[in-house]
Design a protein that fits this description.
Structural class: alpha/beta
Helix content: 25-40%
CATH architecture: 2-Layer Sandwich
Order of helices and strands: EEEEHEHEHHHH
Number of domains: 1
Largest sheet: 6 strands, mixed
Amino acid sequence: MSADVEIKSVTKAERIIIGIDPGTHIMGYGVLRVVDNKPQLITMGVIELSRFESHYLRLRRIYERVLGLINQYLPDEMAIEAPFFGKNVQSMLKLGRAQGVAMAAALSRDIPISEYAPLKIKMAITGNGQASKEQVAEMLRRTLNIPQESMLPQLDATDGLAAALCHYYETSRPISIGKGSKSWKDFIAHNPDKVVQPGKKKPQETNKDE
């Protein structure tokens, strides 16, 4: 059983990113498309796993549902939240398996995967690594212009969506050219000694001990 909300149709997308919030009772997911460098919500939802008594049956369900989402929305990339390391070793082991099964579904379709720590995701979405799940959900609603009535009560869904948006932010940053440099022209102007002109060899540094 799963609950989801779909906002946008999947057409003419430049990039499609699926975000996953791993869980052994409820797994959240969100799918974004990026058009003209602007993220838009396609769908978000949760995969209910509590009805399966066996942990292994839950893993199979995760694989089947994540693969179904991949086949339906054809994402270019997957962003997944890394397990939070707690004191309960058994819980961590099961959560790691759930994450691994979701990753296996993406790998079976040759989809690249990026993993983000919960603190990293919260920082990217709200600017506060200690933000609550409710604060993350509200910021997502405002950023992506999601109607209030389309927000799901399960915060696992917005956690999955947050992973996708975090990945968009991380991969959309301009490449850093140099400290304090805004462009190659600016970098060259401030670092003439690091530029070798055509036909000229960069002078070798002398060893002061010689």
